[in-house]
Amino acid sequence: MSIGPRLTLAPAVALALLLFAVPVAFVLRESLFAPDLSLVHFERFLTRGVYIAVFEKTLAVSAAVSTICLLAGYPMALFIVTRPPRWRPLLLFLVLVPMWMSILVRTYAWMVVLGREGIVNNLLQWLGLTDGPATLLFTTGAVYVAMVQILLPIMVVTCYSAMTEIDPGLVRAARVFGAGPFRAFREVFLPLSLEGAVTGWSVTFILSMGFFIVPALVGGRKDMLLGNMIVNQVGQGNWGFAAVMAIVLLASTVALLGIVRLVASRFLYSPREEQA
Amino acid sequence: MSGEGRAPVRFEKVSRRFGDVVALDGFDLEIAAGEFVTLLGPSGSGKTTALNILAGFDRATSGEVFIGDRAVGGLPPEKRNVGMVFQSFALFPHMSVFDNVAFPLRMRKFARQEIAGRVARALEMVRLGGYGDRRPSALSGGQRQRVALARAVVAEPPVLLMDESLSALDLKLREDLQEEIRRLHHQLGTTVVFVTHDQGEALTLSDRIALMNRGRICQFDTPTALYDRPVSRFVADFIGRTNIVPVDAAGHAAALGISPDAATVKAVSLRPEKLRRALHPGDLAFDAIVEDVAFHGATVESRLRSPTGFVLRMSETRSGPLPPPSSGETTKVGFAAGDAVPLYD
To answer: Model ipTM?
Structure first.
């Protein structure tokens, strides 16, 4: 009986090792050989300002995109969850539809929308807001817009599912005991949904950190993220240096989310903790 | 905590329609200040709709609700100054027991010290003194419901609403909490509107019961009157168990010796425990065949067949003068004429 559960877990553990731990180990090994065991790749990453700058930019863009997604996605989820139950599936469906298209297709769509002859430029000129076509494509702004559009549905769904876990009776209770609609939200609904919001932020952050198609297609040269650098290095056959950047990306993401979790568990209510 | 602020509650021709469905149909009810009234009925009878309209979670399609002399139909829940105990407890899981009970006081902007004192007293009252620091998740079901009770009364609302408040608990806890609620009601004196589908609970707790069916009140009366003098088949059947003997051409009632004094009587209700084999002087009586006998602990339940073939249930206490009947025997069974309650529908 005591060994049974472990045995049944074995296939899953083996699969996880094979698919996740082994590749990471390969990447780690790659980063440490040049071709002999050395830290020369790490040294290069840390001593050339340009790589550090791209790394910082990746962190900043990811944090900003996740935060914008949160600020837009939380209210959207709140809107959906407060509609009558028969409308919710349709609204959720509308949010999810864009996710059925590949990121590549959606990014090309943004190139069309933001290009010199694109809808936005035509509209701006028609309204007389600009004389000639404005430079919208290949800008940092375009990167933000496209990344947020791609990641927003994930945020909405994550927040939504956290919100559906909240007993509507709790908000009613708050109302009966003297809280107005806004106060009831602040005292009860918000604290109970924050954990879901943090999860949404974390998921979008992880995904943002690895983005490279969007910056490559709609961003300018200075909008390169770490993902683009890795693609470049791999293209040039520098597997070792690409591996270093992959390790840095992985380690920094894990570290940052660890901190977020730690802070969240200290200050936020978690339904899972309650059941433990 | 005294009952100074208790208020009467009045529903005036309240209707609530959801599309084609009529949940409440011209609902009239007057509850005196300090009274414990239960809205009792099967699911879909409109009792929860009535409570939701009183609490402010729902609006009447027409009609008005009064708390005290104030029409509250247009007020949001937070302006109605009522306390409420929910079926699912609805304790805030992210707050301690203390903060849960303090919530209504905090919303009413009481001073911090006043809050501490009142919360301590309210927790003491439900015998949970010293539990303030715990999370609701660390409490048992009964303790959670007592916290919910403390939270509902801590601000001394003039009206206390209870929505199926004990249904989520098991039988033993439910009986304990019934006592607790009765004690609290005596102590606080607030008006209580209690909603339940459990007739036993209603009979135990209430000063008066409004028995509801299909959005209307069937009978609004004391528990004993509801039990002893039901005004309709539905009431007779819903409260306790009974034998409903039709007064018709088949002569079922006549065979039992019943001759109603009004032509409009369509049936009579005869409680199983009113039937007896040890006849009293003046009893109406008939010859019954005992078809089945079942032992129920304190009582023995028999299925009887009357001379016209009508099936009746009889319930006798085991401490009665005769030994239990045996299946298949024929016996005289009687009842006091006044125990046959005439029904007109």
So the answer is: 0.85
